[in-house]
Amino acid sequence: MSKNSMGRDHPAIEAYGLVKVYGENRALDGIDLTVRRGQVFGFLGPNGAGKTTTIRILATLTRPDGGTARVLGHDLIGERDAIRARSAVTGQFAALDDDLTGYENLSILGRLHGLSGAAVRRRADDLLDAFELAGAAGRPVGGYSGGMRRRLDIAAGLIVTPDLLFLDEPTTGLDPRSRNQVWELVRRIAEAGTTVLLTTQYLEEADQLAEQIAVIDHGRIVAEGTSAQLKSRVGSGTLHVRLLDGEQRPRARQVLAGALDGTVRPAADPLTLSVLLPAPADATDVGRLVGQAMTMLAEARVAVAEVTLGQPSLDEAFLALTGHPAGPAPTDHEDVNA
Amino acid sequence: MSTPAAITRPAAERTDRIDLLLAASPPRRRAGALAASATFGRRAMLKIKHDPKQLVDSIAIPILFTVLFTYLFGGALGGSPGDYLTMLLPGTLSMSIAIVTMYGGARLAKDVTTGAFDRFRSLSVWRGAFVLGGLLSDAARYLFASAMVVLLGLAMGYRPEGGAPGVLAAVALVVAFGLSLSLLWAAVALLVPDQGVVISIANLVLMPLSFASNIFVQPSTMPGWLQAVVEVNPLSHVATAARELMNGGAGTGAVTWSLVATAVIAGVCAPLDLHLYGRRG
Ligand SMILES: Nc1ncnc2c1ncn2[C@@H]1O[C@H](COP(=O)(O)OP(=O)(O)OP(=O)(O)O)[C@@H](O)[C@H]1O
Ligand SMILES: [Mg+2]
């Protein structure tokens, strides 16, 4: 219904060179972004990378110090009301009223969306029901669990189905069950045609939900692509090898470095080595390479206790994409290590 | 968490309902300015309903001031309580409402820090609605506090010569002045979104206004420079106007002064509030 508004062909978000400066800190240092309509776009980055700042700017809550953007075809500065009318923000900073009940929260927001009293009641009841909050509708939100709260938060963004939904770290702090519920919701919302821009600190979350992922670090986009493209840059995975005898670790390191064309790092545990595997042209090669490496370790008489092959973690992805570990500003980091 | 019914309901059915819900969205319509303001007013009322402690300030301050000032200063004025209440009660009313105004600013500061404010700002709603809705609930609070002062005064023997019309006119004048102060504290809260700081700044302004006034003491007993301060203190004029209205014999001077002061404060602060509300950090 809302999808056939004029200019279907323009992207949901086009941003060029967004800059935001807080004092000395360049929170955003030239962000370019294109989000296609109907896409789930993942914004992946560690604490303080600039994820929330980007969302606040695109949702018209914060004014950029530089750059331009069009959101749903509307100019960020000049047509802020049109953007507000067609998008919804949930997450980290847009809070619900803790002392009001779930129903009252939705009812207030419904009236502010211009719904009549009867329409508000119907929509609030439907949303609470579909989000499995009907039983808690009459209780103050302050007493909700983290998962319930997040669901209500998302429901509050759907009072009028938005064309664009901003989700700022929708699953941070949730247990796996609640996290899966939120993921399922996000998929449904996207399938119904709403463009979703979500931020996350978890590679797995971006991988699960987003068709396109931008990795942000220190206010810059350091990599962008589909999950598969990013993984091919990061590597196909990480091989963890646990030895029986820590004395053998230097020898094992030498063997693995020769067998596998990846970076071998000693882990904190003195018995373990981890290897960031390069992405081979053919995915089936991974098993063959690992098998060869195991054979070579056996030939070098290194006793192996445990071998695991896993997805690269966000830390490893960052290391591969940025050359430094995910974390606070590099200056802070070097000071700590010095 | 989930109700048993939700657990047994097949997942597919649940998610289908979300699809339907998204497809059956109500039409996008901009809320009217008044409807949105009334909604913000209702939100404040609901908050009071869930946490009546919020009203403690609006109850305790009027009671405390009325009783305390009557017996503290009444003796110095001489006569029966009915006599000195004639002099004190309108001033107590003015001061009580002025003090009670600062809690509205504190609540706004809290909305800004918790993020409720950002959620509302992210909607396409007339930007004055948030401030105007706050004023509606403030007006209700000030009327409530005024009723406490007047009823307590009547119980202690105060008999206003101006009758009900005089008392109502005085309350209206005092509440209007209080609302202009609400707009002032709203500006402070939007500039410094910290409850403690807002309360401190409001106290810093209101305490001198209350005591360097004609509420408790005849200005003729004060040194010349202080008399000059009392002369320009808007709260003095509000207190005088309330006294004249409640006790009959109203001249137009103090009433006019009070209305002008109210209009000037509101005229400066309302546009400032709108600007600060719309501002993007
Ligand atoms: N209002 C502000 N005033 C000053 N500095 C700010 C402000 N908001 C953000 N910053 C700074 O800007 C940088 C980016 O912050 P931002 O909140 O966008 O990061 P983030 O990626 O959302 O992090 P997180 O994962 O912790 O939510 C940080 O260094 C932060 O300290
Ligand atoms: Mg953030």
Automatic annotation (TrEMBL), chain A:
Keyword Cell membrane: yes or no?
yes
Subcellular location, record wording = Cell membrane
What InterPro entries does the record tag this protein with?
Answer: AAA+_ATPase, ABC_transporter-like_ATP-bd, ABC_transporter-like_CS, ABC_transporter_ATP-binding, DrrA, P-loop_NTPase
Q: Which GO terms describe its biological process?
A: daunorubicin transport; doxorubicin transport; response to antibiotic
In its UniProt entry, the species of origin is given as: Nonomuraea phyllanthi
Q: Please give the GO cellular component terms listed in this UniProt entry.
A: plasma membrane
Quick check: keyword Endoplasmic reticulum in the entry? no
| Keyword set, alphabetical order | Antibiotic resistance, ATP-binding, Cell membrane, Membrane, Nucleotide-binding, Translocase, Transport
Recorded family membership: Belongs to the ABC transporter superfamily. Drug exporter-1 (DrugE1) (TC 3.A.1.105) family.
Name of the protein this chain belongs to:
ATP-binding cassette domain-containing protein
The molecular function terms in GO held by this entry are: ATP binding; ATP hydrolysis activity
Q: Which residues cross the membrane?
A: none
Membrane topology type, per the record?
Peripheral membrane protein
From TrEMBL, chain B:
Question: Which chain regions cross the lipid bilayer?
Answer: 55-78, 84-104, 125-155, 167-190, 197-217, 254-277
One CC-aspect GO term: ATP-binding cassette (ABC) transporter complex
Q: Keywords for this entry?
A: Antibiotic resistance, Cell membrane, Membrane, Transmembrane, Transmembrane helix, Transport
- Topology in the membrane? Multi-pass membrane protein
The cross-references to Pfam families, in alphabetical order and at most eight, read: ABC2_membrane
Residues of the signal sequence? Answer: none
GO MF: ABC-type transporter activity
Taxonomy, superkingdom:
Bacteria
The subcellular localization recorded is:
Cell membrane; Membrane
Q: What is a biological process (GO) this protein takes part in?
A: response to antibiotic
Domain (ABC transmembrane type-2) spans 53-280
Q: Which family does it belong to?
A: Belongs to the ABC-2 integral membrane protein family.
Per its record, how is this protein called by name? Transport permease protein
Origin species: Nonomuraea phyllanthi
